[in-house]
Write a structure and sequence with these properties.
Blueprint: H1 10-17, E1 34-35, E2 61-62, H2 72-78, H3 81-88, E3 107-111, E4 117-120, E5 124-125, E6 133-134, E7 143-148, E8 155-160, E9 166-171, E10 181-184, E11 189-193, H4 194-208
Antiparallel strand pairs: 1-2, 3-4, 3-11, 5-6, 6-10, 7-8, 8-9, 9-10
The structure holds zinc ion (ZN).
C-alpha cells in the first residue's frame, strides 16, 4: 500500500506537480473567493436517481481554502474548454461521451487542476451511469464535500481540496463495502497507468521527506 506517506506535504507536492506556469503559488489575489455556476443548463432531466450526477452543480465552494490558486484567466489557459467548464464552473460532461467512463486500465486518477491523486482504478466500478464511478476515494483528505440543493434535489458535491476543482457528486447508492458512489466527471481527472503512478509516488514520497 502506498499513498499515505506523502500526505503531510501535500501542499508542497501539489506545487511540485503543478504544470509549468504559475507553479501553484497563492499569489493570485484576483481570484474570486467563491465560485458558483448558474450558467450551465441541466444536461439531463432530473428524476432518475442514477443520473443525478448528470446535473451541473450549484454548490458554493469556498475557494479561499484552496492551496493551489490561479486567476480565472490562468485556469482558462491551463485547461481545455471542457475541463474548464466542468472543473472550474461546476459543469457536467455528457454521459458515455467522456474519456474514462469505460476505462478499465489499472492505475490512478489525479486531479486535472493540481494533479493530486484522487481515485484508484481498484475502487472503480461500472455504475451504468456513463460516468466514471468509484466506491471510495484514494485519499479522503483531497476530497471536499459541499451540500448542493440545486434542481430540487439534495446532493453532495465533491471537489478537490487542494485546488478547488469541481469533481462530481457522491451518492449513497453505491456497492459494498462503502455503499458510496462517487460519480465523477472525466474532465476533472487525468489517468495515470499504474507504473507511472508508482513512479510518481516514489518520486514525491522522497521529496516530501
Ligand atoms: Zn486539484
Amino acid at each position: 500500500m502506498h499513498g499515505v506517506m506523502f500526505l503531510s506535504s501535500f501542499t508542497a507536492m501539489a506545487t511540485l506537480l503543478a504544470p509549468a506556469g504559475g507553479q501553484g503559488k497563492a499569489e493570485d489575489r484576483s481570484s474570486p473567493p467563491l465560485m458558483k455556476s448558474d450558467q450551465f443548463p441541466a444536461s439531463c432531466p432530473p428524476g432518475d436517481q442514477k443520473s443525478a450526477c448528470g446535473l451541473p452543480s450549484k454548490a458554493v465552494i469556498d475557494m479561499g481554502k484552496a492551496k493551489v490558486q490561479h486567476t480565472d484567466a490562468e485556469w482558462r489557459q491551463r485547461l481545455t474548454p471542457e475541463q474548464y467548464a466542468v472543473a472550474r464552473r461546476q459543469g457536467t460532461e455528457p454521459p458515455f461521451r467522456n474519456a474514462y467512463w469505460d476505462n478499465h486500465a489499472d492505475g490512478a486518477y489525479v486531479c486535472v487542476g493540481c494533479h493530486v491523486p484522487l481515485f484508484d482504478s481498484r475502487q472503480k466500478f461500472d455504475s451504468a451511469t456513463g460516468w466514471p464511478s468509484f466506491w471510495q476515494p484514494l485519499e479522503e483528505m483531497f476530497l471536499g464535500e459541499s451540500r448542493d440543493t440545486s434542481y430540487g434535489q439534495i446532493r453532495t458535491e465533491v471537489h478537490c481540496t487542494v485546488c478547488g476543482s469541481h469533481l462530481g457528486h457522491v451518492f449513497d447508492d453505491g456497492p459494498a463495502p462503502t455503499g458510496l458512489r462517487y460519480c465523477i466527471n472525466s474532465a476533472s481527472l487525468v489517468f495515470l497507468p499504474r507504473k507511472d503512478y508508482d513512479a510518481w509516488v516514489a518520486k514525491n514520497s522522497g521529496l516530501a521527506k
